[in-house]
Amino acid sequence: DFSLAYLLKDRVAPAKSAGIILLDKLITLVILSIAGSACIALFLGAWPAIIAAGSLSALWIAGFLLLFTDAGKKLFLKILPQNMHGHFLEFALVVPQFIANEKSRIALNAILTVAKLAVQAGATAIIYLGLGVHVRIIDIFMITAASTIISFVPLTMSGLGLKEGSFALLALRAGISVD
After folding, report:
1. CA-based torsion, 20, 21, 27, 30: positive or negative
2. Over the stretch 112-158, which tens digit does the pLDDT of each residue have?
3. The pTM is what?
4. Is residue 132 helix, strand or coil?
């Protein structure tokens, strides 16, 4: 987790650290959403891509409204125990401040996230090469992103089987043999 590196620098208040961790997760999800949507468009066609992009956009909008609007904050305050209200309100102030003041750290996080996915794709491509199958790393990069997003669908515990199945389907559509 790249978000933990920031916490090692100083002692950080729980609300601030929660905001930093949330931003780290959001950056990862944005990158996965973009690469995954491109993969679905490229290998499954326009309609599945429109459905995926529309669903992801709706989730992004809902998440933004819940976390960053007054109505969303009020909803969270109704759900949270009373002793957590102060932490949540501090969190709600810290996240926009962090976004405004730490653009270089956010950019570095995004770069490292893309690099991490590229390393994963490279490792997978090396495994394929070891099996005598030539693949394009960009295809593996996009397939990995799409299968990771698909694994978040809450149909099974921890996306069990969804990630592997979607990876195999997308690899077949990309012309990669899974024999």
Report:
1. negative
2. 999 999 999 999 999 989 988 889 999 999 998 888 888 777 666 66
3. 0.75
4. coil
